[in-house]
């Protein structure tokens, strides 16, 4: 596996140009490594898939151009995948019997959505964030607390030595299915400034409590009110163990699915799994497919 996280840590976040250049630097080596480790030869490849959005334009351009080159040289179909759908499909890697329709909570660094996966390639958005995404809130609060990047795993680790003793707001808790996390982040900032004596571990635990409570409340409320039996969690924040533990409490009423940790954060397997569904349906893209940094569902 190749990850840019150690590089982005130095800058306290993702610098778009650095990310794109690192894609250029590593994509070829990574591909060679994948061929070596999987022992799959180019002539055994049925199709080449790539995420064409949403995301940072530079990284998307490097990835799609490389994938188009591969598809040309292997003489195989080229398939563009929506990154968000990739996250949902990460669940099919571990749960092959899982079938739509199901309710999905998609929580990543750039997105927070409650949606119905009605069919394999058909989605309906029930609610989404009006400002910061859940992962973004973890990252920003980690920065406020001086904990570094990426915020989610560090907050989770730090919170293990803390207690939920501060009640931070749970925005829009009982107001429909949209989310809003920027006020929560700001209230942590004010609290830190006003209470220099407070332990960072306790603040991290209290913030994590507020945000996971909000996510769990909305997704389970919708499922119970609409008689939905399967909830699928996806995206980097789905790695969070407090979120998972809270959701697991509903397991006597609703089936809860989340991917293995390595399939929660961005990965190539989820893109390949989503592409397989398009491939089976003959949904192949032309080599002039453009990238789409703001692609929605
Ligand atoms: O899905 P992802 O890898 O990338 C995007 O598509 O955005 O998600 C990354 C986000 C980051 O904001 C990161 O802080 C968050 O997922 N994250 C977590 C955890 N692991 C990653 N948030 C909370 N708890 C975690 N354990
Ligand atoms: Zn992602």
UniProtKB/TrEMBL annotation:
SUPFAM superfamilies: Actin-like ATPase domain (SSF53067). Its EC number is 2.3.1.234. Residues 3-272 form the Gcp-like domain. Keywords: Acyltransferase, Cytoplasm, Iron, Metal-binding, Transferase, tRNA processing. The keyword tRNA processing applies. This is tRNA N6-adenosine threonylcarbamoyltransferase. Belongs to the KAE1 / TsaD family. The gene is tsaD. Required for the formation of a threonylcarbamoyl group on adenosine at position 37 (t(6)A37) in tRNAs that read codons beginning with adenine. Is involved in the transfer of the threonylcarbamoyl moiety of threonylcarbamoyl-AMP (TC-AMP) to the N6 group of A37, together with TsaE and TsaB. TsaD likely plays a direct catalytic role in this reaction. Substrate binds at residues 106-110, 139, 152, 156, 240. Its main location: cytoplasm. It is an enzyme of class 2 (transferase). It is found in: Cytoplasm. The keyword Transferase applies. It catalyses: L-threonylcarbamoyladenylate + adenosine(37) in tRNA = N(6)-L-threonylcarbamoyladenosine(37) in tRNA + AMP + H(+). One of its GO terms (biological process) is tRNA threonylcarbamoyladenosine modification. Its cofactor is Fe(2+). It comes from the Bacteria.
């Amino acid at each position: 596996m190749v990850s840019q996280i150690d590089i982005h840590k130095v800058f306290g976040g993702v610098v778009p140009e650095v990310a794109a250049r690192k894609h250029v630097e590593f994509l070829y080596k990574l591909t060679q490594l994948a061929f070596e480790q999987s022992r799959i030869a180019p002539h055994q490849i049925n199709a080449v898939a790539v995420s064409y959005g949403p995301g940072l334009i530079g990284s998307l351009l490097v990835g799609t151009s490389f994938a188009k080159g591969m598809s040309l040289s292997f003489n195989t179909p080229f398939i563009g995948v929506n990154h968000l759908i990739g996250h949902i499909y990460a669940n099919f890697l571990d749960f092959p019997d899982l079938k739509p329709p199901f309710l999905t909570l998609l929580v990543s660094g750039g997105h927070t959505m409650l949606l119905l996966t009605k069919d394999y390639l058909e989605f309906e958005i029930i609610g989404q964030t009006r400002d910061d995404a859940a992962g973004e809130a973890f990252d920003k609060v980690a920065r406020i607390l001086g904990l570094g990047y990426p915020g989610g795993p560090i907050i989770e680790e730090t919170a293990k030595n803390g207690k939920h003793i501060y009640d931070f707001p749970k925005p829009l808790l009982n107001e429909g299915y949209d989310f809003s996390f920027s006020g929560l982040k700001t209230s942590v900032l004010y609290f830190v400034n006003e209470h220099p004596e407070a332990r960072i571990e306790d603040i991290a635990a209290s913030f994590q409590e507020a945000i996971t409570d909000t996510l769990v409340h909305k997704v389970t409320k919708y499922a119970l009110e609409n008689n939905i039996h399967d909830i699928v969690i996806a995206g980097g924040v789905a790695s969070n163990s407090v979120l998972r533990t809270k959701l697991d409490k509903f397991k006597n009423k609703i089936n809860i699915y989340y991917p293995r940790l390595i399939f929660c954060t961005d990965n190539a397997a989820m893109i390949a799994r989503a592409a397989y569904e398009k491939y089976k349906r003959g949904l192949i893209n032309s080599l002039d497919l453009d990238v789409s940094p703001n692609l929605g569902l």
